[in-house]
């Protein structure tokens, strides 16, 4: 739905993986990356009414997990990074060398500021995955609502705006107005996609 969604996602992953490696002196595991992306997505959602990366998440025990990345975690590779499976069902994200750097021109100034804020708060030697998971539970309210519905349930972005469905237009905040526009477009695209035949989807 977003322009340059693929490029934005890949460069966000590269950015957080490089910062993690630089500050912690080791490659991040998938759990770290999932949490950095979720914090970025949901913080921008609350601040602007639109998620930064337009990902879908499941509410898993350690916090939000981006579904499309999790499903290809054993073979996910781009020009910028590679997901490398390890023992004990873990995976680390290795940024490729030879001058590969994230291209932050895909992001707005406010998005870059938020990414840097996440780095300053969460990427340091005193923050492990348990602390980070707890932080994601606390900051990302829709995770708790989805978890209470059912373990591993899909997280609904609309839960970031309590009571929004019952508000009159004049009572909506600018963020809520932006979200309803985004949400309506997304749902409309999902309905249209389901209506298309398999042949049309392949064309």
Outline the structure in words.
By secondary structure, this protein is mainly α. It folds into 2 domains: 5-160, no CATH class; 162-203. The protein contains 8 helices and 4 strands, in the order H-H-E-E-H-E-E-H-H-H-H-H. InterPro entries: SocA_Panacea.
* Average pLDDT figure: 87
User: Radius of gyration from the CA trace?
Assistant: 18 Å
Taking pLDDT < 50 over at least 5 consecutive residues as the criterion, the unreliable ranges are none
Question: Largest sheet, if any?
Answer: 2 strands, antiparallel
Q: In which range does the helix fraction lie?
A: 40-55%
Strand order of the largest sheet: 1-2
Count of discrete domains: 2
The global form is globular
Q: Structural class, judged by helices and strands?
A: mainly alpha
Beta-strand share of residues: 5-15%
Measured between the Cα atoms of the first and last residue, the distance is 19 Å
Brief synopsis:
This protein is mainly alpha-helical and 203 residues long.
Layout: helices, strands, pairs:
Blueprint: H1 5-24, H2 30-48, E1 57-60, E2 63-66, H3 67-70, E3 81-85, E4 91-95, H4 109-122, H5 129-139, H6 141-149, H7 174-195, H8 198-202
Antiparallel strand pairs: 1-2, 3-4
Helix pairs in contact: 2-4, 2-5, 2-7
Descriptors for this entry?
mainly alpha; two-stranded antiparallel ribbon; 4 strands; globular
